Amino acid sequence: MKERKRIFQIILVGAVLCCLLSGCGQKDKNASVKEGMAAVEALDYNTALQCFEKAMVDGEDLRLLYRGQGLAYMGLTMYEEAVDSFEKALSHSNGQVDEIDYDINYYLATAYYKLGETDNSIEAYNSIIALLPKDKAAYYLRGCLRIGTDFDKARADFDKAISLDKEDYTQLIDIYLVLEENGYKEAGQEYLQAALESGSKSMTDYEQGRMYFYLKDYDNARNYLEKARKTAGYEAVLLLGKTYEELGDNNYAVSVYNSFIADDQTNAKVYNQLGLCKMDMGAYEEALTAFQAGMNIENNDMMQTLKFNEIVTYEYLGDYKKAAVLLDSYLSTYPDDGAAKREYTFLQTR
C-alpha cells in the first residue's frame, strides 16, 4: 500500500543520523557502537549485531547500543526483537528527554506497525506527540494508522499536521494519497482544492502544477509544469513527464526525461521514470539501459527500486534465469519486500 511505503520511508530518514548520535563526544568509549552503526548503514545487519554484542561486553552506552541493535533487527525483518531492543533503549534514558528519545519512539512505532500491532504503534506516536506536541510528522503518521478504522480521528490528525505547516505541500499530497488509497478520494481532493484556493497567489508554478496533477487536471498541470520546468529542477521534470504519460503522449514524456539527462546524468529518479516509461512502450532493452544507468550513480536513494525494476525488465525480456539470480541477491538485501517475494515464487515456476 502507498501509505505503508510512505510511513516506512519517513521513519527511515532518521537512519542517516545514526553515526552522529552514536559518536557525539564519546568516539573512543563507543567505538563498537560506531562500527555497528556503520554496518547498519551498509545494510550489513549481521555484522552490526556482532558489533553491538561487543559493545555490550565493553560496557558502551546501552541506550545507543540497544537503539542500533533495534535498527539491525529491523533490517533483518526481526520485528519482535527490534521492539524489545527499542524498549530497552528507552528504559536506559538518562531522565532528560532529548532528540534520541523521539527518534527511538519513531522506530518503535514502525516496528510495531510491521508486526501488525497498530494500537501499540499509535501509542508510540502518542508518546512522541506528548513529548513534542508540534511534531507534524507524528500527527500525519498517526493519521495514516487510524484511517483504516476511524476516519474522523485520522482526519483530525491530518488537519493538525496541515495546520502546523500550511505550506508543506508535499505532506498535503501525501495525505491526499493516503485518503485516496483508503476510499476517501473526495476528502483528499478537498484538501488540494482548498490549498489552491487559499494559497495559489503565493504558490510557485511547480506547486500549482503538482496540485493540478493530483487533482487529475492534466491540462492545467502541464501548463504550470512547463513554466516551472527550467527553474524547479528534476521534481518538475519528473512530474511534467508523468503528466504527458497520463495525457497519452509517451514519446514527448521520453523527450522531457532525455532533455534533462542530456544536462545532468546524476539523478537516479529521472532514469527510473524514463525506464518505466520505456517499459510502458514495450521498449524493454531501452528500459533496462535506463535502470542500469541509474544504478551506476553512486550513493543514490533509488537503488532498491532500480534493482527491482531491473529484475522485472529481465522477466519481460524472457531472461528468467538472469532475473532469478538477481532476485535472489535482491532478497538477501531487502528481505521484507512482499512484491519481490511474489516475483520469486513466480520465477520458481519458469
UniProtKB/TrEMBL annotation:
Pfam family, one: TPR_19
rRNA-binding as UniProt keyword: no
Keywords: TPR repeat
Name of the protein this chain belongs to: Tetratricopeptide repeat protein
PANTHER family, alphabetized: CELL DIVISION CYCLE 16,23,27, TETRATRICOPEPTIDE REPEAT-CONTAINING PROTEIN
Keyword tRNA processing among UniProt keywords: no
Mapped TPR repeat ranges: 63-96, 102-135, 268-301
